[in-house]
Amino acid sequence: MYEGMVIRPPSEARSLILQITLGCSHNRCTFCGTYNDKKFRIKGLEEVFADIEEAVPEVRGYTKRVFLADGDAMMLPTDHLVKILDKLQQEMPELGRVGIYANARDILGKTEEELKLLESKKLGIIYLGLESGDDEVLKSVKKGATAQEMTDAVIKAQECGIKASVIALLGLGGRGEGGRRHAEATGKVASRMNPRFFSCLTLMVLENTPIGRAYERGEFELITPEESLKELRIIIENLDVKNTIFRANHASNYLPIGGTLPRDRQKVLDAIDACLRGDTGMRPEFLRGL
Ligand code: SF4
Q: Which domains does the chain have, with CATH numbers?
């Protein structure tokens, strides 16, 4: 049923993962090697329906959630997504929530009516990789969207009732001044988005990516564990959100941390400071992973 590497957000660990596209239609981000081996393809509806019929009985009683993969499945036309959501509902009457990875253009290319229709059919959450709030960084990593476009997309989805989970990448701006700018802009842009969920991962360079090759050539520098905490601190300092569940507990991070913001802001800052002072330890390098 699955083709190639299949990834999903950590919070979808208990969901039924259903591949409705293969690979990523963008597939240009210089830090991402996830779909290097996959030529982008939209799976036919018959194939997807057969997968649903096969998989749903196996997960009945275990989960009420479904995650639609691969990379940016939200690029599919609305009527195609509606047919899949209807089929899911038919085979899985207990269906609680459907999640999906989305790019800015996927959301902005749909009307509010289309987004509301998808929401009414249980599409409850989009996962959007902001990566950085700094347009220079976004351009250099070939993200294919500006910070403003991603902000507009998140606001639009949330106004239509679809929750947004936004992901940023510590270290993507490199070291020094670039890193500081990246962190500051990321905090500010995430504030404007005011997403329901916001998480920070830490960049790990993969050999099979342009950024990995730039690192090998000495043209890109990775931040140190201390610098990753300082970036995180700058992001939190600049983060002005209303009620956001914040997580930096991904396996790639040096200090697993989280809370609800703004309520836990000081607690999160204190935990970062304690770690920077050396009062608490960081996750050792050999325990980090993607
Ligand atoms: S949009 Fe996402 S999946 Fe596609 S290349 Fe960029 S990071 Fe990878």
A: 11-277 (3.20.20.70)
